Every structure is written in C-alpha cells, then in structure tokens.
Amino acid sequence: METLESELTCPICLELFEDPLLLPCAHSLCFNCAHRILVSHCSTSKPLESISAFQCPTCRYVITLNHRGLEGLKRNVTLQNIIDRFQKASISSPNSPTESRRLQPPQRPYTATISGTIAGTIGGGGGGTSGSSARSSPATSSHSHPHANHTNHANHANHTNANHSPAVVAKMDPRISCQFCEQDPPREAVKTCVTCEVSYCDRCLRATHPNKKPFTSHRLVEPVLDTHLRGLTCLEHENEKVNMYCLVDDQLICALCKLVGRHREHQVSSLTERFDKLKAYQVSPGRVSDAVMEASKTSAAQTLENNLTNLVKRNSELENQMAKLIQICQQVEVNTAMHEAKLVEECDELVEIIRQRKQVIAVKIKESKVMKLRKLAQQIANCRQCLERSSALITQAEQSLKENDHARFLQTARNVAERVAMATTSSQVLIPDVNLNEAFDNFALDFSREKKILEGLDYLTAPTPPSIRDELCTASHDTITVHWTSEDEFSVTSYELQYTIYTGQTNFISLYNSADSWMIVPNIKQNHYTVHGLQSGTRYIFFVKAINQAGSRNSEPARLKTNSQPFKLDPKTAHKKLRLSNDCLTMEKDESSLKKSHTPERFSSTGSYGAAGNVFIDSGCHYWEVLLGASTWYAIGVAYKSAPKNEWSGKNSSSWVFSRCNNNFMVRHDGKEMLVEASLQLRRLGVLLDYDNNSLSFHDAMNSQHIHTFEVSFLLPVVPSFMIWNKSVMILSGLPVPDFVDGLASDLQEQQQQQMGLCRQESPYLTGLKSCH
C-alpha cells in the first residue's frame, strides 16, 4: 500500500492527488498546486491572467495554457476514482498509514483492480465526467455514520458479494435520489439494496434495514441507477430477466428459453457458475498466469486469455509509441523555434547587406555627379570665354565695315580680315566638344537577377536520395567503379560512399547499423568513384549518401561484385612433358618437350601430365573457363597445395576434378568416381569456385548448362589444377560470373545437396575406371 500511495502522491504538496489535472506530458498535478505555481510567477507588472505557460514539476515540459487557463486542462477523473477507492481500502485496514486522513472525495465503484488500473491510467490519463462533478457528493464512511456498526456490516456485505452483482460495475450517478423518501425533493441516496432493488437515503436506510435478520442478508451497494440494478432482459421473452447461460450458443437466456424455447435441449449453466469460471481466467494487466493457462479447458476462456494478453501487449506498445510521439512533438517545437530564429537572423543579415549596398551605391552616384558637373562647368566656362572673344571680333569687324574714311578703312581692314580668317579657321578648336556621356544617362541599376534570387529564397532541405546505376558500374578483380545519379545535384554539397562485404544478410537496416564493418569514402564531388584494393570474386554492399547543410540521405543498397582472381599456369608446377605458351595460358602435351629440373611442386609421375595455377584462393567467388579444343582426355578442378603430384587429380582427398576419358565424363574426389552427363561437343568448360559458400561447380559455358557441383567444406587455400593426356587446353581467367550461373544457383541447390549425399556414399560410385593408356 505504501508503494501504491507513493504513485498517487502529488509531487508538489506530497499528499494524495486532489482534483488532479492531466498535463499534456502525461503527468498529473493537483489543481490547487498548479494554481500556486501560476501565482508564484505573478508580479505587479505580470498579473495572473497574463501567465500562459508553466513547467511540469516532474519532467520540466512546458505546459501551454489557452484563454481558459487551468480550466482548459483535462481533469484526470480516472486517477481521482483510483484515489477514492484507495482511500476507502486504507480506512478498512487498521494498519494503513493513511487511516487517520480525513476523506474528502466521495467513494465511487470501480471496475478493475487498483494496481491494474494504475498501470493503464496514471501514465496515459483517463476520461469521464469533470473533476468538479466527481467531488460533488459528501463522503460516506463509517467514521461519519451515526450507526457505525450497521454501516460496517453493510460494507462487509457489499465487499463479500460485489463480484456477484452486476450493479457494482456501474458508476455512481451523484444525482441518484432516495426512492423511499416522502419529502419533496427527496434526499440523496447513500446505498442501494440489491435485494429490494431500491435506493435509500441514510435516514430511510436505518428505518427500513435494521441490523437484524432477515435484513442482514440484504446486499447493499453504492447508489446505482435502476437500469443497472434491474439487470438484463431476455431478447426473446420480453420482461423476463436472464438468469442462465447457454453453453452451446454462448449467450444469456431466461428460464422460458430453457423450458419452452430453442435452448431446451442445450446444456446450460447458472450465471454465478459461469461468471466464476470465466473470472478465474481474467488476469491483471502486465502478466498472464501459467497455472491459469494450463488449467484452461474451454475455448471461451482461452480466447479471453489470449485477447487479454494481446491487449496488454498492444497497450504497452501504444504507451511506448505515445512516449515517442510526445518526444517528437517536443523536438518539433524546439527545432521550429530554432529555425524561426535562424530565419529572422538570416533575413536581417540580408536586409543589412542591402542597406549597406544601398549606401555604397548612393555614395558612388553622388561622387560621379560631382565629378561630371565639375567637368561640365569647366566646359561651360571655356565656351563663354570663346563666345566673348568671338563677339568682340565681330563687333570690331562690323565697325571696320562701317568706316567711310578710305585711309582709316585700309589701315584696319587688313588686320581685322586676318583676325577673322584666323578665328574662322580655328573655330573647331575654339568650340569645345560636348561629351554626351557626361549626362549620366548611360548608367542603369538592374537588380533583376538579384530579385529572382530573393524570390527563390526558401529553407534548404536534405537532398533526395541518390540512385546507384548498376548498369553503369564496372569492376575488375580488385576494383569497383560505382556510378550514381541525383535529381537535385545543385543542392548537393558532396557525396559519401560506404561499402562493406556482403555476408548474405537480407536485413540491410541492421547491416547498416553495424558501423564497425563499413568503409567510408567522404567528400566526393563527382557522381562516380573507383574503389581500389578490394578482394577478388567478392560481393560488396554499397550505399551513396548525398549531403548538404540541411542533412543527408542514403541511396538504396546496391550489391556489386569484383571479378574473379586472374591467374596463369605456373611453369614451376608443369609436368616435364607439357609445353606452356609464352603467356602461360595454354598447355600442350608434347613427348619431345625439353627436360625440366625436378622441383617438389612439379607434377612428376608418369601419366600425371598436369600443371597448377599461380594463385592460391582462400575467399570469394571465382569463375574461369577452359577452352578444350580437340582434347578428349583431361581432368580439371582445384586442389590443396599439399595434394600429391605423382598421381591423378581426384585420386586423393585433397583434389576435386571434372574429367573426360574419350566418351565418358565423370567427377572424381578421394578416389571415388561418378559418371555425369555432358555433351560430346563440350568445347568450353566453366568452373565456378565459391569458396565462402563451400561449393565447386562445373558448367557447359557454350550451352549454359550445369554439369555437376561439389559441396566441399574447404579447410585450406586451393589452387586451380589442370591435367591433359592429349592435345591442348587454354585458360581464360578473371571473368565475371555469367548470369546463367547465378540464376542456376538457387534452382540447383536442392539437387546439389542430393548429389553431395551420393558423393558421401560408396555404393553409387564406380569403384574403378578403365585404363585409358
């Protein structure tokens, strides 16, 4: 009880919640305590009505109030009901720590256990009537009743038989009136007698139900409506109460249904028996009893139990989801406020830049104006000076022409004529040129480009996910070039390429979260990148991340594969009667071949005309082809380095080969041989070594047909092995795996397993092979 009481205690007053408010953060708070918090923020300049928010004392979440203030928050009525029931249980227990507390809220019937309801209510709140209506009735406790013994007896009867009464599950209506009072209006009912089916006030109850037989057997409950008290009626027989349960049809019936109705031949049970049986399978939220599950024998109980389990699980998921949503809402608020502040800051900076540029351009215009006006004033002064000289000369010339005295005219005419001629000749120099550019009409303020940029102002979002173009990607045995495209390349600042070895895991999200295994190439500016130093014949997973200032987004994963490991024939391993080409890609049987020095790795025995590749493979998936030409006797496969060089490949446990001897095709390992079907026209043999998946398969590369697959648990690195007894063969290595080989892999998996089962048994195999010498 003490632990339960702590869950029902207000974090401010440290008392049981009184008129609890349900805050948006899912915590609760007393109405008076919330009011005291608002009052503590008041001041002369900030009245109570102006306070629009406060912090939750439990989680510090900011609670925003509307124009109604605290009245705009929901009451946690369900929590109040829990407290009412808890207080009632505390008083009935003599050792309860809350026995001495005075009960103020009324007692209300409740439909679930206290602990079960707390688990689903305190965190998420409840609904129902308002908190004020929930507290409108006076408390009905044994401490305030004038006849305590009678009331305790009634309460005892109520607790003993409440589980058998359908009325207990009804909520008390605070306006239920006494049905026995003669006064008008009648007093408020304090108890309802289930036996009498009548609600009584305190005075009428003491008058009609003295503490003696037969009234002590009456069941008294909290006041309930008549509709809850009188029970359910039969659907088929009007005004008949249901009092039986049909086990065949799983429905409530009345006595007439059993006697004369369609249920007369059905097996029935009493309501009490059926109630007890189903009630035994009800479990408190949060757990399911294993003993109850084992004891369950009826389909209805199993269904109820399963539904309860699923409901509890779903409630838990909903609570977690709600908590996440609340957290996201809070984060949205924080991020929105941050972005709004950033918007104001950025726009203010733009306005400041425009203001500064306006001042700079205005100063330039004024300076240009002063300079141009100064030049124009100088030109005007020059023009005025020239005009004055010309006017004086004109006046003098006119006076000379008016002279009638021949001697005086001749004396001045020559001088005047020379001056006029000189002035006329130099008129172009004397008259200054007018520069039209000085009018300031060839300057313009064109901000159309800047206006378009400003009109396109918007908040930046993370770029759309790029798309890896598989058809453009290329690979070699140790490199892969990845190509991708992006719909909004101009908004991308850079790309980041991430890759790791593909392990066959289909859950790419969990694979991506295992960051330790990923290689990262940052700050890529183009839409392609070549990764070097990769393992040959290995599948990789690639992601491309497009990045800008707003964030980043990943592409869908792409699976790309490096080509097979290229190799050549190793001359140090070639039999002395084999001749290798200069590029070490062709081997030919030649009896006249020059003698070669003996080395431990050289094929040496008579009949073991073989050579090995110059690589050892210990990982990846590798494919190579052998051009067989006209050869009809060969053995091609792989072997460990320790495989004997003095016997045929496949005769030991360290080698696996596909072989042809004239018209017979077979596979051989550990001295066991098995005939396989292949075309006599086989000219190009494909070999697929999937070291990581423990398989070695052979294919007719020209006809795209599968021949055979070995399922091998490789323990050591292997080397390609080749043997011929006539003609020549040529090797093509470092090839990508053909599509038909990848497509056949899944279809042939079951067949390969069956063939491997045959390979592990001696009976299906030919124990000998005719000598082909």
Structure description:
- This protein is of the alpha+beta class.
- It has 5 domains: 1-41 and 49-90, 2-Layer Sandwich (Herpes Virus-1), CATH 3.30.40; 191-272, Classic Zinc Finger (Double Stranded RNA Binding Domain, 2-Layer Sandwich); 326-459; 467-562, Immunoglobulins (Immunoglobulin-like, Sandwich); 578-750, Jelly Rolls (Sandwich).
- The protein is built from 18 helices and 33 strands.
- The strands form 8 sheets. It has a 7-stranded antiparallel beta sheet with strand order 21-22-33-24-29-30-31. Strands 23-32-25-26-27-28 form a 6-stranded antiparallel beta sheet, with no helix packed on it. Strands 15, 16, 18, 19 and 20 form a 5-stranded antiparallel beta sheet that branches.
- A hairpin with a 4-residue loop joins strand 30 (695-700) and strand 31.
- Helix 3 packs antiparallel against helix 4 (114-121) and helix 12 (299-401) packs antiparallel against helix 13 (406-425).
- The longest helix is centred in the middle third of the chain and has 103 residues, at 299-401.
- The model is unreliable at 94-173, 283-297 and 752-773 (pLDDT under 50).
